[in-house]
Design brief:
This protein is of the alpha/beta class. It is about 40% helix and about 25% strand. The strands form three sheets. The chain has a six-stranded mixed beta sheet with strand order 6-7-8-3-9-10, with helices on both faces. It is globular and about 75 Å long. It starts with a strand and ends with a helix.
Length: about 280
């Protein structure tokens, strides 16, 4: 099975600053792949390389088996991209924006109406984009990305500035795209959605890829061994059972008869991310 995206030893520099430090990964057909990391980890830079906006210092990138440095025109129409910032024609309405791109892609105008409905912008379709909120601008980017029904969606923080209902719509859009054989590469800060949406996850830390695996495997390998304890005085405390001092403190509470209840803590991707990033942070200290 040929990978939809193949990055090999990718290095990107801005002047003397090395942003991406020679990592590699593949994204498979029909897969929803989540790229996670803190601010400055290199997520957006990676996506900009994939859509031809940034030239790497070294490394090799293929999409659909084509070298993007040499064959970008062959694959461009098969990709839908949501950038980290809006780049609309602000003096046009939402409808006019999408009709402009429909003309570029040779897409029927009825598809424009479908996409406006898909993201919940049909009522605001004749409003100038200059008057749109940040969330509405984000929705218009999503509509534009799926307008030509691409095989690959590359989404940089697709749920940024969206309300709960709109976030649910984006989740459904991603699920439907994958269900029909499409592939998705996304970045996100909404770690709570990773297990629900992503088949695999890559974790970037300071331009290096620290882990690539399924969310379930990351859960097993990096979940903290913690318990939440409610005391009889009504206060609550969390104890890390991998830490000797916490174990001793919990034992003391138990022996004193002060514990009213104990509960296992749910898996926390933020905690797992911290555990994965810790070895690299220690090496830079």
């Amino acid at each position: 099975m040929e990978a939809v995206i193949r990055l090999q030893k990718l290095v990107v520099r801005y002047g003397s600053l090395e942003i991406l430090r020679g990592f590699s990964f593949d994204v498979n057909p029909g897969e929803v792949f989540g790229l996670l990391g803190g601010n400055g980890a290199g997520k957006t830079t990676t996506l900009r390389v994939l859509v031809g906006q940034k030239t790497p210092a070294s490394g090799h990138v293929e999409i659909f088996g084509r070298d993007i440095a040499k064959q970008w025109s062959d694959i461009k129409s098969q990709i839908g991209y949501v950038p980290d910032g809006a780049n609309h024609f602000d003096e046009f309405t939402g409808l006019q924006n999408l009709r402009f791109f429909a003309g570029l892609y040779g897409v029927r105008w009825s598809r424009v109406d479908e996409c406006l409905h898909l993201v919940g912008l049909q009522a605001a379709s004749r409003v100038r984009v200059a008057d749109y909120s940040l969330g509405m601008r984000r929705k218009l980017l999503l509509a534009r990305a799926v307008l030509h029904q691409p095989r690959l969606l590359i989404l940089d923080e697709p749920t940024a500035n969206l309300d709960t209902h709109a976030v649910d719509n984006v989740r459904n859009l991603i699920r439907e795209h994958s269900r029909h054989g499409g592939t998705v590469l996304l970045t996100t800060h909404r770690l709570e959605n990773i297990e629900e949406l992503c088949d695999r996850v890559g974790i970037l830390v300071a331009g290096t890829l620290q882990a690539v695996d399924t969310p379930q495997t990351l859960r097993r390998r990096h979940a903290g061994n913690k318990v939440a304890v409610q005391l009889k005085d009504g206060s609550c405390h969390t104890y890390d059972l991998d830490t000797p001092s916490d174990r001793a403190a919990l034992a003391e509470r138990l022996s004193a008869g002060n514990v009213a209840g104990m509960y296992s803590c749910p898996f926390d991707f933020v905690d797992a991310f911290s555990r994965i990033a810790a070895p690299l942070n220690d090496s830079h200290a």
